[in-house]
Amino acid sequence: MYRRLPLLVLALVSLYACSKSPPDSLPAAAPAASADGPPRYDAELVYVDFTARDPRALEKYRQGPFIVTGRLQKVHIVGAGELQLDLKAADPAHPVRVWLKSDPACDGGRDCPEQVALDTLPRGFKVYLECERATLQDGMPTVADCVLTGASGRAS
Question: Which of 31, 59, 84, 86 is the most exposed place for a label (fewest CB within 10 A)?
């Protein structure tokens, strides 16, 4: 009996150590979240989430800021300081609409530098936008209160 005691103690110590160790699988982070910035979502993912209308999937778009990436489909200059972009989605006939924050420095007499720069970009150019919220407006996924954070990539 005493020869089995060290084996029993070893088994108990192992069980105790296993119960105190961290779990094997950590909770999943937000899609494309990075440690040094807000979560990143591709425009095609935004489109899929909004067409599925899953409340759990849509909740993440109420918690800005987040980065939206996508291929430029069309630029609309709506008014002085107001710019709207259409980003390519899974269905090209139904793009993801993006509203950029209006620039108070712009007036009706001149184009803003950001508008001029975006007008020169070719269709399909990948853009990166930091946005505050996304909703479904008139059946179209719409991302609002965005600023252009960079544009990196080539048209394809």
Answer: 59
